[in-house]
Structure formats: structure tokens, C-alpha cells
Amino acid sequence: MLEVLGRPASRTEIVKMMFLVDLELARRGRKPLFHWLRWHYGPFSREVLDVLDALEEQGLVDVERIIDVWTLTVRKIEYRAARRPAALSLDDDARLAVERVASWWRGRSLEELIRYVYSLPQVRGKRLGEVIELEQ
Predict the structure, then answer these.
(1) Domain boundaries, the chain
(2) Average model confidence (pLDDT) across the chain
(3) Residues 6+ apart with CB under 8 A from 132
(4) Rounded Cα gap, residues 70 and 41, in angstroms
(5) In Å, how far are 50, 99, 130, 131 from 114, measured between CA atoms?
(6) Which are the contacts of 80, defined by CB distance < 8 A and separation ≥ 6?
């Protein structure tokens, strides 16, 4: 996804785009890659963050943590594709879904992405902590 985006992406942006990847896979009759909950900022999957952490440990993504100088807390985490090519194995359907989602959202803002995701029927009306079912 980061290679197709061609730019850094925040955790929030990656999570929302992976939700759209899973939605596309489900629409094609495929099992989603992750389990999703309605959380404070829309669809959320802890599994996506676990994958990002694992990719960081393996050196497959570069990570920049932006610190708030007043509170000394992490304000934002951005990911970039690592300089060495990633050796991830995705089947063709998943790879194409990732490429389509990343290509579509490459030039759009995070705010537009969030508005779009929140407008989806799978997300609208869900209560905090409620499971978002994507399987058809």
C-alpha cells in the first residue's frame, strides 16, 4: 500500500484504507483480512496495528513518530515504504484490492477518506465497540 501511495501515511489513514480493502474483498465474496470494530475514530482493527508493528520490526516499513514538544507524547505516527523491497505475500485478489484502494486515495486528504468511510452503511449507526460485519 505504501509503495502505491508513494508517500508517508499515518496509522489512521492506513487503518481506514485497509478497512476499504476488506470491504472490497467482502464484496467479491472473499473473507476479509481483519476483524473490525466501530471505535472512537470509525472502523478499527487492532490486527492492522499488529501487522504494522511486525513490518517495522522486520524493517519493511520506516516509521516516524512525531512528538508533541509540550506534552512529550507521540502526536502522530507515519509510515513509509522501506528502501528495500517488501517480501510480503498477498494473493492476487488482495494485492489488487490494496492497489486499487491506495491508487484511489493517493491524492485525497485524510479528512475526505474519513468522511467517506463514516458514510458507508457498514459503519453508519454502529455503536462504540460494535462489531462491523463485512462478510457477505
Answers:
(1) 2-132
(2) 89
(3) 36, 37, 38, 43, 122, 123, 126
(4) 24
(5) 21, 19, 18, 18
(6) 2, 7, 8, 61, 62, 63, 64
Cell of 115: 468522511
How far is the first Cα of the chain from the last one, in angstroms, to the nearest whole number?
Answer: 24
CA distance 22 to 45: 11
The pLDDT tens digits for 95-118 are: 999 999 999 999 999 999 999 999
Nearest to 1 by CA among 70, 85, 68, 101: 101
pLDDT in tens, 36-53: 999 988 899 999 999 999
Q: What is the rounded distance in angstroms from the CA atom of residue 38 to the CA atom of residue 19?
A: 11
